[in-house]
Amino acid sequence: MIREMRAAIFDLDGVIVDTAKYHYLAWKRLAHENGFDFTEADNERLKGVSRVRSLEILLEIGGLTVEDAAKEKMAAQKNGWYVDYIQNMDVSEILPGATNYLESLRSKGIKTALGSASKNAPLILKRLGIAGLFDTVVDGNKVHLAKPDPEVFLRAASELNIPPVRCVVFEDAEAGVEAAHRAGMGVVGIGKPAALKEADMVIDGLYQLEVVAGG
Ligand code: G6P
Ligand code: MG
Ligand 1: does its nearest atom lie under 6 Å from the Cβ of 115? Predict the structure, then answer.
């Protein structure tokens, strides 16, 4: 249920920026190098999930068992490719409506936070020059428990000093929707309703939203 919103917490990949495709390409490349395929449907299971957990799911899909040292190497290899892909990102990869919606929330006194599992979040925000749109940034470098654990969103609420019940999360991943609900927050799903059945409402993108004054 979504109540009066005093803070908005945004996932990064697939909500603010179009990086989900680069994560997918890098994981697919790792799968191919290891002799198996990785489809877009498989990729839904990795959205919002930490790097280490994503690798475990990928290996499970490929039916591979590997030692910890090899896992570390694979995760580093995937991240190297991913970082290469995002080096050339520009503001055109900010998703439609994201900047406007954030600016509009802030102009109405609603706090904004980033709540992402990504350790690359600071690099992306800096590259695109959008760090200033968030009152606080909570990313994979700050939290220990990955979504669907609610830690990332609870920490954002606490840093903003807003009770969780007055926060709304914007998420494109099933794991993130579950994390938001476990934090006691309302959640707007971004993407296809079929993939985000538990969200309180689902929209195609932030461009569909307008900030309503008052309350
Ligand atoms: C986000 C993405 C995931 C990604 C995770 C960790 O939640 O949706 O696909 O695996 O962040 O990102 P990182 O950039 O630290 O590998
Ligand atoms: Mg996401």
Answer: no
